[in-house]
Amino acid sequence: MEKVVLAYSGGLDTSIIIPWLKENYGYEVIAYCADVGQGEELDPVKEKALKSGASKIYIDDLTEEFVTDYVFPGVKAGAIYEKKYLLGTSFARPLIAKRLVEVAEKEGAIAICHGATGKGNDQVRFELGIKAINPDIKIIAPWREWDIKSREDAIDYAKAHGIEVPVSKEKIYSRDRNIWHISHEGGDLEDPANEPQDNLYVLTVPPEKAPDKPTYVEISFEKGIPVALDGKKLGPVELLTELNRLGGENGVGITSMVENRLVGMKSRGVYETPGGTILYRAHEELERLTLDRRTLEFKEVLALKYADLVYDGNWFCKLRDAMDAFVDETQKTVTGTVKVKLYKGSCEAVASSSPYSLYSEELATFSQDEIYSHKDSEGFINLFGLPLKVQALLNRKIKE
Known about the structure:
Elements: E1 3-7, H1 12-24, E2 28-35, H2 45-51, E3 56-61, H3 63-77, H4 88-107, E4 111-113, H5 122-133, E5 138-140, H6 151-160, E6 174-177, E7 182-185, E8 215-222, E9 225-229, E10 232-233, H7 236-249, E11 254-260, E12 266-272, H8 274-290, H9 293-311, H10 318-330, E13 336-343, E14 346-353, H11 361-364, H12 376-384, H13 386-399
Parallel strand pairs: 1-2, 1-4, 2-3, 4-5
Antiparallel strand pairs: 6-7, 7-12, 8-9, 8-13, 9-10, 11-12, 13-14
């Protein structure tokens, strides 16, 4: 019997794909589940996959690799899609695609299957990742083939096949969770006119219900990478876990947005990224302290391109490698500490310090100093304003 490796989460779509693959392709189904920090969601996955008809299941803990090799490069780059989305799902998909190929090659499988819909971005992210590593392996995307048209249809299919799923027609949100974030789509969220309800949130309390006193946290960076909280050295997973706790308790990191999908349509999603929001804000502030104006401006332009590239599933491309080389060069001096204030959903960097600080109190002071002469600015302004002066003289001449 030929084998197929299924990207398995235990959610609605991938749960019904196992019997569907066996019925329609006659393949032996090997489930693969990547642990990227989704927590208790993984507890029933093994038993559930086998009950649904999988012959075997792999469950790999990739959390540290995910944070170190995928999330932190994005933080260093400052990549945020459409100024709001911190790319939680986008960062995870290339890592999962890479591991799917490795398992398929180990098992001698002829195909890899995923549960992404034909309307979404994940189909692109999975398939580009797979093609970049093994261009010859077959890819199966049931949502582009089967007669199931909606999540309601999928629930009915699951019931008909005796498969328990973690959703119902009343609780129909589509969620993706990892250590970086959790996303919510579907249900009442599909109408952008509907405000997200408080019972939607998983990682974060509603800002109105956060404590009435602010929480402060100091984050230390070495070459753009966070390494300590409040002076205590922590590994990447420990550090992000603690920031998620602090951010979640203070209502930080909730984003509701209508975004432009790669396939051409707009979609509405709600994201919770508590720890990630804190890291981005702190890293941004440290760069303001340690990078010169032109480097910072150019890096902001690159950040937009980097975010688009990752969102579109092009993680394994030469352009990202080149961008990372530039980013790593800029991060050589992004070392220091940032104090962040968390209060009822807000996240503000209130203090920063670095041995590579470009801020000079002697230059910035309004008091008399020996470094800067106020008289020097006159010649500079005359030269800087010369084009405006020439234009004004020309305008006067034309009017005459």
